[in-house]
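Exam revision sheet. Question 4 asks you to relate a sequence to its structure. Input first:
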Amino acid sequence: MRIMGLDYGTKTVGVALSDELLITAQPFITIERNKPNKLRQTYAQLESIVAEYGVSEIALGYPKNMNNSLGERALETEEFKKNLERRTGLPVILIDERLTTREADRILAETGVAGSGRKEHIDKMAAAIILQTWLDFRNNEGEEG
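Answer key, structure tokens:
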């Protein structure tokens, strides 16, 4: 059993997977699409990952505004969530993703990934941060009862 983390964007979806013990998140892939509203192939790829890796739950980044309000991207993410739940039959948990892309960029810079090479890794790294946030929360909740 694993949990999948997603960073849903207008042109890409960053994907991360947990280890089987549900302790750590690892960047997995970035799904790119040519048209923002064309998601059929994206859903098909995600369904394939769910089946192949035994995913039981999905943590989806929720792009709130800095003042905690919900904008257009948040509403699009809510629609993506509904469709993802319907297509996979899995629970999809929304995780506040404010500043995750900035954090992902910082991590990649600190690990020596050149600025031009960060673009291909940033979305899956942001997905890993979103997923790790959820894993840490779940694991801490279990300890507190």
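Marking note for examiners. The mean pLDDT is 86.
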